[in-house]
Design brief:
The chain is α+β, with helices and mostly antiparallel strands. It has a domain at 26-64. It is 17% helix and 33% strand. The protein contains 1 helix and 4 strands, in the order ββββα. The chain has a 4-stranded antiparallel β-sheet with strand order 1-2-3-4. Residues 11-61 form the DUF397 domain. It holds the Pfam family DUF397.
Length: 69
Amino acid sequence: MAIKLGSTPMWKKSSRSTGNGACVEVKSPALASVVVRDSKDPHGPVLSFSPEAWSDFVTGVEHGAFDLR
């Protein structure tokens, strides 16, 4: 499933976030990049991905590719 990304200038937390502190926040300040940070450390480092790489990662998560349980 391809993820459609638009420019999102504000940080967004997942709608599946349970408030347990183990969250990431995502924003796409430009159509050419997606940045991710730890919600517990909003002034800490961010990771930057191309929209294609982020879409591939999200698709992998949805299909259980990274399920470590």
